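All the exercises in this workshop are built on plain-text protein records. A record pairs a protein's sequence with a compact description of its fold. The structure tokens are whole numbers drawn from a learned vocabulary of backbone shapes. Once this layout is familiar, the rest of the handout is easier to follow. An example says more than a description, so a record of this kind follows.
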Amino acid sequence: MAASPAVETLLRRTLGERRIGLVAWRLLVLQIAHPAVAAGMDRYSTYRAHPWRRIEHTMESGGRLFFAGPEERRLEVARLRRTHRRIHGTDAAGRSYSAEDPAVRGWVMVTLYESMTAMRELSGESLAPAEQDLLYAEFLDVCAALGIPGEVLPASAAEVPAYVERMVREVLEFGPEVRHMLHGVLREAPAPRRLGRLAPVWPLLRVVIARAVAALTVSDLPPAWHERFGTSRGPGGAALSWALHHGLRHAMALAPDRVRYRRRSVNGAPAPARGAVPRARRGGDSRPARLEAFFRQVLDQTGNGRVNSADLQAMVHTMCWRLELPAEREDEVYTAFEGWWRQLRAAADADGDGAVDCGEFVSAMLAGVDRDPAYLEKGLVPAVRALFRAADADGGGYLGADEYRLLFGGPRVHPADLNDGFRELDADGDGRVDEREFVAAFCDFFTARTDSTAGTGLLGRA
């Protein structure tokens, strides 16, 4: 769907400035310091292993909420609601949490507004009271669209500073998730795809970047934060903050709008890198290599070498997020994949720790399909059928090329591989893939001993 024309507002101009990136990590720290947000991220988020993908999703979601037209915003609000209703539980301290808690959602949103005003203040160009009122009124319109009740939000822009200070002093915690966001994520992050040939220097580069981001973030946090948690700007951090905020402010004032402002299409995404499945040596069984690739590229959402129920939920969330499914269809996909997880855990979780590593996964799948011809029918096939029916948007019983690309597209699979895979699965050449062909392809992927079968190209070809 093409984005509707959006009227330029103070909110869009402020969020669209590239220098908003200077306060991005500060924003994340303030959000994650809320114990409910920290618990949800620790349990459900994949930011530790896939920070760039998580950032891409966040930016796309923000584009739909703040820069697109009313229809795109409506779709994004519905998608966020479907996602948040699944994020709940009990944290390590025994406290219950829920992403649907209005007060938690209110805090997350207010930190975004507060970060916009902080960007201006830190660069020496604070918004006038009338501008703050206008910006906050536009911000509250988005909160209303998200269904956040007004009573959990500051009533006016003038009340935001006191609200933030109270939250810092009474609610926020400087826990392990905050420490990891400040000092661990960037030090462990894989090389961004855009580095290209510079990727080999990333291990050295990320150390420098991580130190600078941590120093800038700590320096820019509110005074109440330093008072409560005993942190300090320090002369080095203060100097870095002043130089970056003031320097970038003056540089951007001289730059043309195409440089000063960032605009992302709500439907755009960076070109994915090829992630083809390695081939087995000639004459050998190619299944272990494919299963290992499937484990790494699809199942292991946290990148820690182990898969549990949360990994499968994160994987399903990504697919449902692309498809924009209604709640009942989304539930069907989650339920089907949870059934596959129960079968997989029963067969592969040898040590009973609730997780499956790559070796256990490969061994269990090979043993299952070799021992029982109906093994896949008892777990994987029902999940695949549910996935097909979810992707079949018009209920016609077929997936066209566009639906196929929407389902499998993303940063891990190149479009050329998707086109090749679709043509191979389209056995009768009619330009569409029916449910039988779709299920057969997945079965071939897990059972074919050579790479000559159509289904072995689901994740791309070497």
Q: What stands out?
A: Residues 1-5, 264-282 have pLDDT under 50 and may be disordered. The chain has 22 helices and six strands. The first helix runs from residue 10 to 16. The radius of gyration is 24 Å.
